[in-house]
Design a protein that fits this description.
heterotrimer; A mainly alpha; B alpha+beta; C mainly alpha; B: alpha+beta; 3-stranded mixed sheet; C: mainly alpha; two-stranded antiparallel ribbon; 5 helices; 2 strands; 48% helix
Chain lengths: 385, 257, 127
Amino acid sequence: MLEKALVGSRKYWLWLSFLAAVIGVGVLCYLWQFFVGLGITGLGRDVSWGFYIAQFTFLVGVAASAVMLVLPYYLHHYKQFGKITILGEFLAVSSVLMCMLFIFVDMGQPLRVLNVILHPTPHSIMFWDMVVLSGYLLLNIVIGWVVLDAEHKEIPPPAWVKPLIYVSIPWAVSIHTVTAFLYAGLPGRHLWLTAIMAARFLSSAFASGPALLILLCFVVRNLTRFDPGKEPIQKLAQIVCYAMILNVFFALLEVFTAFYSQIPSHMHSLEYLFVGLEGHGRLVPFMWTAVVLAVAGIVLLIVPSTRRNEKTLAVAAAAVFAAAWIDKGMGLVVGGFVPNPFEKVVEYAPTPPELLITLGVWAVGFFVLTVLYKIAISVKEELAA
Amino acid sequence: MGVDRREFLKIAGLSTLLGLGGKGALEVLSGKEAEASLQAEPQGGVRYAMVVDMRKCLERENCHDCMEACHREHNVPRMDNPRHEIKWIWTEPYEHAFPGQGHEYTEERLLGKPFVVLCNHCDNPPCVRVCPTKATFRTPEGIVMMDFHRCIGCRFCMAGCPYGSRSFNWKDPRKYIPETNSDFPTRMRGVVEKCNFCAERLVKGLPPACVAACKEGALVFGNVRDPESDVRRVLRENFTIRRKPELGTLPQVYYIV
Amino acid sequence: MYDGGKIIPGLLVFLFLITSPAWYNVVTGRADYRPEPQLPSDQKECVKSTPYMKAFHMDLLNQWRDDVVRRGARVYGTVGGQTYDKSLSNTCLSCHANKAEFCDRCHNYLGVKPYCWDCHVERKEKS
């Protein structure tokens, strides 16, 4: 079926060329980083994880959200999702790939990355993260490809793919739980040391992933002859709505615990993010933008007329995605390092090369997503004809 | 040949998986000398610890003897960008070394004064717990060591350490080393480093460089399992505190304030 | 053969070019070159025999690396009446002091770039 990605319209090739150019720039910047060191980024002794790891954290959530299509369709036989589960699975593939690339570009000695396999360390959460991410990538590639191939040949998929699909459901939950455990088990970082870290991660994931999927469905409908249908998109909108409400609720729970207990270590990181700490408040405008976007998104999703109107739905989905991205992709990781273990505030801002490498990795993800979607849509268009 | 293409691919795939995971699995299952990791038992009853007597240290102002000795001995670079700073032993003001201890009415003697801080070589180290390659590990004598050869530079240990004891080589450090000590290696870009309790000196029966350099005798080092050692005596005779004890890391650097 | 007059000579030129790595060095005499690392003048005995070191010095260094860092077993033993530590800079280089005339001779010839030297310091005093 790969040959379906090799034919396309002018727009298709222009888009892929644009992505390839962004990837090229990212690769050049990465080569510079590889030879000079991570010093070309805005990272430092105090904020030692930044944009790269934040993108990874956000994208693990997007990857996990494929389960929001698989679970209703395969476990509860919600037929409406039948047409678009493949879109969710391929989004998961592209997201996990981006996750792994973001980890790779963040490493100080990337050529030694196989040490994690050569010297397995079960007491390290990062070891398990590598295991579950690799497993999830493999699962989704195999399931997506095999099911699509069977659809293409108009035969039922082979029986052995069913258990894999059932396994992928708890596995999707596990990838984001394990990623949350990377943060939630560290004794010195009080923004992260919360029992509901995994719950927050999952609710944010189930809001941002399906929101992106809604937007992708609209794009697919406009650019191709494949129409996902109104019902599946509406169902996704409901899922995004509830997940985002939960996400915001969990965030407010954190605020309550911190500020009602008045314990300084609980309060300081949240203060830094939302009002500034000791005169430093670089992230404050971003966090409040996220709040406004989150509220706007939820309102647009709750009100039935704006949810059913696909133009306002697109705005709502974009707002939810952006809010979740700011919260996880900017606030969470950096906020955990501020203040530092000495209660001093050292801020962080990504440098241009760091941003270009980040864009390059996103471009790789979108490149893979475009190719995989092209194949899936071509198969579906052929069948409809 | 009785193998068709599909079977061949299945066999090839399985072999690859076995090859990739095989070495690791063998290491875990072989039961041969397991690699040093978290719960190392004291060897011959040795567990190293240090007592920092801040009363003596505070008597001298602007003294950097211990830091200079350590950084010279270990080729610790002096980076120009403060974000890229690498330090194995340094000072932090009292209120920052012990956050939460300082208050409105703190005595003059301690207010804002520089306290010596370093890696605490915890008995329950979170950094060792999180390292995915065991590049940082605990020796049987209680030293939290770094294996620079194995470190992949993921910096999880830096996030895990609640004391901010660890530094990362954001660039090649060689240009920034004022005077290279050829008896000790430098590090390369991309690895994490920190105080190693001078393991290379201890093996020769020498005290750590900082302990030897302190002219006030403010740093007391030794085997905390030996009831007759200096460090045990000092701990017996004085009230000592440790940094962030509520986190359960069991730090082995004690402070007399 | 259609266009045989062009194809056969073309194939011969291709074969000539593609096999050039094999015959060029023999024809120009470069194949006879053997790298000659300069041995230390004062010491006669190495920690292990020469054939062993030629084949396994990398494995020995890897073993030493894990022994010293991970197991704290720093002492190698006695060679020629002196006790040595397991140390690249302090033991190996104490006799093979000039890296450029010893280590680099073979490494450069073979295009090998071991990254030991990114961290381990070359001693400059003796030569």
